Amino acid sequence: MEMASTEAPGERSPSNIYIIGAQSTGKTTLVTALGHYFGQNLKSYGLAENPHQLKEVARGVLREHGFTASDITTSKSRALELQRLIIQAQIRAEKALEHSWYIADRSALDAVAYAQQYVGESEAHGLQQGLTWSEVEHKMRAGTVILCEPGGQWLMDDGVRLMPQDRAEWFELHSHFMRLLTGCNIEYVVLPCSIAGLEERVAFVVDAWRRKR
Hints:
Order of helices and strands: EHEHHHEHHHEHEH
Helix content: 40-55%
Strand content: 5-15%
Structural class: alpha/beta
Largest sheet: 5 strands, parallel
Oligomer: single chain
Distance between the termini: 21 Å
Strand order of the largest sheet: 2-3-1-4-5
Shape: globular
Radius of gyration: 17 Å
């Protein structure tokens, strides 16, 4: 896949890319494809290094701490603790890459959206308190944030991820993301589910990233 670049080599540091949204919206697949695309087009964008791919942080937390997806819907205390641990793990993972650039298949904000959906507004708000959260917002404002719209072909039960009971629940979670991003003054672009082809989705993100630069 080729796209013309108007960037001058070495023009500025690339912004990190956050591919976020509800479960089963093709985020990790898209991050992998973007990593491959940039790896083939480094010189076109004046990039010195391939982006790091920051993927599956939440799954790592599930494995490490013995949580299951069902904990999110059966125990509010367990659900809240899980989201707190995911935020901490995401912040650590991003901190480890602070001198590089990366493409992530989630953000710390994702965990807050899940807490709003499955625990409660006040508990979710508590996750956003402290200096650490201000750093989260700062990084996301400086990055390119792509919110994947539900409704596409990716809703499949892999035995690990939480599955929505129906499409209404799926889109309700999406609404939480939009409200959180707006409330945090984080600029974002919605990737419509109608853009289903992987090359087209990559091109959409790259265009948004170039405009952010």
